Amino acid sequence: MSELQAVCVFCGSQPGARPEYVAAARDLGAYLAGHRIDLVYGGGHIGMMGALADATLAHRGRVIGVIPEHLMRPEVAHQNLTELLVVDSMHTRKRTMAARADAFIVLPGGYGTLEEMFEMVTWLQLRLQTKPVGILNVEGFYDRLLDFLRHAADERFIRADHWDLLIVEQTPALLIERLKLHVPRAAKGARESIERA
After folding, report:
1. pLDDT tens digits, residue range 123-169?
2. Domain count, the chain
3. What is the pLDDT of residues 25-81, one digit of tens each?
4. Does residue 1 belong to any structural domain of this protein?
5. What is the dihedral of CA 68, 114, 26, 1, to 10 degrees?
6. Domain that holds residue 123
7. Starting from the edge strand earliest in sequence, which strands make up the sheet with 103-106, in order?
8. Positive or negative, the Cα torsion across 117, 105, 109, 65?
């Protein structure tokens, strides 16, 4: 079992249609803080992102935000984080978040959240990194996506030995425990690959 010192969370900048989504972000933030796991995230103070960061801070956790300069307007960037890193691009943001974390968790979100998740899974598949990727499947939000991925596997676009690259659970406690237990395939030069990507 590996210890997680920091987890990168990808999630929406909108609160979503159901109060359960924001509640799940708050629960995850409280769990991370209570288990002394640093939160690394996109640096915003609105939507799911803001709820996650605020809950982590309220429970005396450490929060590292990474945000591109063009999103630094006061209404977007969170001003009260433990650490706020301002970077030059979206690509640098992802690379920096990946380098600062030991695992990735995906909460409900839109295009950006999905893009971030799939890049980390692709890096894992290609052995460019070894850090596990988990989905917190709040209220079945990702059920249809998972169904599509099963379809892609059935149609032989996702190999059987890559099917378990995404770890899916419904609660923070179960997901964190599975992330700790996950033993990914060996990746030569994984850390260097993330830092240079």
Report:
1. 999 989 999 999 999 999 999 999 999 999 999 999 988 988 999 99
2. 1
3. 999 999 999 999 999 999 999 999 999 999 999 999 999 999 999 887 755 788 889
4. no
5. -100
6. 6-194
7. 83-87, 63-68, 38-41, 6-10, 103-106, 133-136, 166-169
8. negative
195, two tokens: 């830092």
Q: Per the domain annotation, does 89 fall within a domain?
A: yes
Residue 153's CATH number = 3.40.50.450
Say if residue 99 is exposed, middle or buried (CB neighbours under 10 Å; 0-12, 13-18, 19+): middle
For helices 19-34 and 172-181, angle between their N-to-C axes, nearest 10 degrees: 50
Instruction: Assess if residue 185 is contained within a domain.
Output: yes
Taken as a whole, the chain contains a residue count of 197
Helix 90-100 and helix 111-125, axial crossing angle in degrees, nearest 10:
60
